[in-house]
Amino acid sequence: MFDDLQLIHMSVRILRFWSLIYEHTWRRYVCLSMTTFLVFTQLYYMFRTSEGIVSIIRNSYMLVLWFNTILRAYLLLYDREKYEKLLSDLEKFNFDLKQSKDFYIQDLLAEVNKTGKYMAQGNLFLGLLTCFGFGFYPFFVNERVLPFGSMIPGVDEYKSPFYEFWYFYQMIITPMGCCMYIPYTSLIVGCIMFGIVMCKALQFRLKTLHRVRHDEPLIRKHVRECIRYQLCIIDYIARVNSLTTYIFLLEFLAFGTLLCALLFLLIIVDSSAQAIIVCAYIAMIFAQILSLYWYANELREQNLAIAAAAYDTEWFTFPIPVQKYILLMILRAQKPPAIMVGNTQPITLELFQSLLNASYTYFTLLKRVYT
Length: 371
Fold this sequence. Notes:
Keywords: Cell membrane, Membrane, Olfaction, Receptor, Sensory transduction, Transducer, Transmembrane, Transmembrane helix. The protein has helices at residues 6-17, 26-48, 53-78, 80-98, 103-136, 162-207, 216-266, 272-311, 320-333, 349-370; strands at 340-341, 345-346. The protein is an all-alpha fold.
């Protein structure tokens, strides 16, 4: 499945293995029940813990990460038919573009598949590296701790054999969580990357209109096809946004706080090994959020570039009815569809920079108060 779409092939295979899309097997119930139970024990821990600030900051990060993971999984299941329809349409769009004889479009498809494949593999590698950090962290502290701070009412989780059992349990579900969290991000970023290809393909079609400029029926047909394709792009981006906008709102709210907390944790940990593990935590969330914001920003820019491509067709030399079509395309492209944060703010690099600035400002304030 999706062998011709390497940018999402691996992500779909992993999500399908865990029965989150396309299949309905026992693996879905195993991964969701085990991870949901962990989140409830983490919540109980956060309300009842009396441990120090290092443990509270670190386990707050873990709680938000796991909550975001199971939220993605449940929303993916809730909108499973919409996701499957979106992926089916993406496969159809890819097939249509592959039928093009233009080398430029073929090169675009080859490049996006190569980039998307390496990005998905890199994200998964960072996720697995972070999983090792979760597992090894308890070995580098002076007291007995668990990879993820959690409490079960009536059970002392730090006494044997409960500690060993709970550590083993958490290590079993860690790869499950990684395979629920990372592939989802890679899948959505892959969908955004394909949207960029669609925009560039439309720009290329507009730039080649001059080939038929003297054949009025043919140029009218080509311009109408471009308008229909522009509407397909708008609909495609709107569907991706409707499925992800509130998940990205949660990530937006959580990322700044987590980055600030982890930077602060970096200066108060006891050993270099702990510092390296915290750096791995930071690298994972930074890589995930940067890839999303980078390509979402590029998608918006390429939608704006459609207006420039339409204007550069020398539309004023076309027949009057065709000129009106081109003007409509230009006007619509000047209000580009975008991936939004909670349907309020488009995801751009400027928003990402503002988020980093806010995180660093609060980190500096915490550092001054602490010292």
